[in-house]
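Residues and backbone
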Amino acid sequence: MDKKLLLWGIVIIYLIGIFVVSSFSLPFHLGNSDKVLHFAEFFILALLLMFALGYSDTRYPYAIAILAAIGFALLDEFHQLLVLGRTASIFDFLADSLGAMAILLVKLKKYLK
């Protein structure tokens, strides 16, 4: 199987997973500790996007991955407005965005070696 196709398949499955999880109301409240989950969720998304874009010969895989992940975070919060028992939160969006931008640390570490 082509590696590029496999990576994009993983990205699509991950995006579907985020959408499905966002479609349910939680039976419990996590408080502010869910921000760590938001950060990690979108860090992983941006990382997956960066790898998939890197194998697609894209010129700026980090920037595009970050912008795409942030765009999906915005759509995810909007989607939650439409789900009974869920609300959109600017703080969730900020945690998602910071997680996506954290892939820059991966790039920085690469250059510091």
In short: The radius of gyration is 15 Å. Residues 3-21+34-112 form one domain. The longest helix spans residues 34-54.
